[in-house]
Amino acid sequence: MRIPTGVWFVPLAVALVAAQNVKYTQDPDWKPPSQTAEKKNPLAEKPGLAAGGKKLFTRHCVECHGQSGEGLRKAADLQLPVVQDQSDGALYWKITNGNPDRGMPSFSGIPELQRWQIVMHLRKLKRAEAEK
């Protein structure tokens, strides 16, 4: 007996939505120094480099944040305004330093420009969400 193609889609979609961390709340103590938060992305004028950020995101971040940044388990939903409204400098600082109290590792071992590429990719997640 063959199962119709659409039958598996509904349970899969429900499972994916259930895994999304829409209840994410930001750690109020996890704030970058103001000087760091004001830092501008040195790659901002090179949008083509965001593709490299996607590859880095896939390699280092998808396990916890999901392919679309939806935030699996306890990880931040990177599509939420509470994340997207932060400056590039703040996101860069958070990627660099991590937050061990919430399970976010430091990615200071990734070269600086590659961390900025990840920030560029995070901005694409915002646009992808807005288009839905």
Structure commentary:
By secondary structure, this protein is mainly alpha-helical. The chain has a single domain (28-131), classed as Cytochrome c-like domain (Cytochrome Bc1 Complex, Chain D, domain 2). The protein has helices at 9-19, 34-37, 50-60, 62-65, 81-84, 88-97, 112-131. Residues 8-18 have low confidence and may be disordered.
Characterize the biggest β-sheet.
none
Number of discrete domains: 1
**Sequence of secondary-structure elements:** HHHHHHH
Tell me the name of the CATH homologous superfamily: Cytochrome c-like domain
Which fold name is given in CATH as the topology? Cytochrome Bc1 Complex, Chain D, domain 2
Q: How would you sum up the global shape?
A: globular
Q: At the first level of CATH, what is the class?
A: Mainly Alpha
Rg calculated over all Cα atoms: 16 Å
Features:
48% helix, 0% strand, 132 residues, mainly alpha, 7 helices, globular, Cytochrome Bc1 Complex, Chain D, domain 2
Secondary-structure map with pairings?
Elements: H1 9-19, H2 34-37, H3 50-60, H4 62-65, H5 81-84, H6 88-97, H7 112-131
Helix pairs in contact: 3-7, 6-7
